[in-house]
Amino acid sequence: MTNILIAFYSRTGSIETLANAVADGAMAGGGGVRLRRAREVVGEEVMKQAPGWSEHAARMNALYEAPTEEDAKWADAIIFGTPTRFGLVSSELKAYIDSLGGLWARGRLNLKAGSVFTSTSSFHGGNEATLVTMFVPLAHFGMVIVPPGYADPVMFKAGTPYGASSVSGVKGDAPTPDDLSAARFQGHRVAQVAAALKSLRG
After folding, report:
1. pLDDT tens digits for 160-194?
2. Please, which pLDDT band fits residue 1 given cuts at 50, 70 and 90?
């Protein structure tokens, strides 16, 4: 069995929903999964400015442990999920990525599979920009980047060739069934690639 870490940050639940679909796909592909939610890096006074943020955070933090260095060491693949923040990764997930510098220095992430997914609140709100720029730290880590591409018919209906995605809109709509199918396909694909890479690492 391959070990799949899905490290995500979700504020309203869109990324959480996609993360669970990615997990379903990874398990169907033979992976054992750890779902981990990155924690807030701002105080309660900032969170109160966005309705529901504190409540969502409390609920999700009760469900998911925070990602750790040990999780990344355990993993044969890491799939990062983040909402877009002005076309970039959220500061919450970036803080976790930055904490992996010790593993990078020791080459402990080399030849592991890496993949990314995202969501934004508006059309053309930065989904593809976020996904592509998320490839950069994966390259620095020496990971093998695994995008879904157009390797399954669902990818012509939803997501992007760089990773699963969704658009929540101003009302906070949940990911569509096609969005979730794309996320499941991505998880399955990563699990398969991770298994092949694991044999190379010995």
Report:
1. 999 999 998 777 789 999 999 999 999 999 999 99
2. confident
Task: Return the bridge partners of 193, or none.
Answer: none
User: What is the 3-state composition of the chain as percent helix, strand, coil, each rounded to the nearest 5?
Assistant: 45, 20, 35
> Which residue is listed with tokens 């199918």?
181
**Residue corresponding to tokens 């999920």:** 81
CA distances from 35 to 27, 142, 163 (A): 12, 22, 18
pLDDT at 96: 98
Compute the distance between CA of residue 118 and CA of residue 179 in angstroms, rounded to an integer: 11
> Rounded CA gap, 96 and 58, in Å?
19
Task: Quote the CA–CA distance of 188 and 26 in Å, as a whole number.
Answer: 4
H or E element in which residue 11 lies:
none
Distance of CA 5 to the CA centre of its chain: 9
Q: How far apart are CA 197 and CA 113, in angstroms?
A: 7
Rounded distance, CA 60 to CA 46, Å? 18
Domains of the chain (ranges plus CATH)? 2-201 (3.40.50.360)
Q: How far apart are CA 6 and CA 103, in angstroms?
A: 17
Decide: pTM greater than 0.90: yes
Burial of 163 (0-12, 13-18, 19+ CB in 10 A): buried
Does residue 185 come out as left (phi exceeding 0), alpha (psi in the -120 to 50 range) or beta? alpha
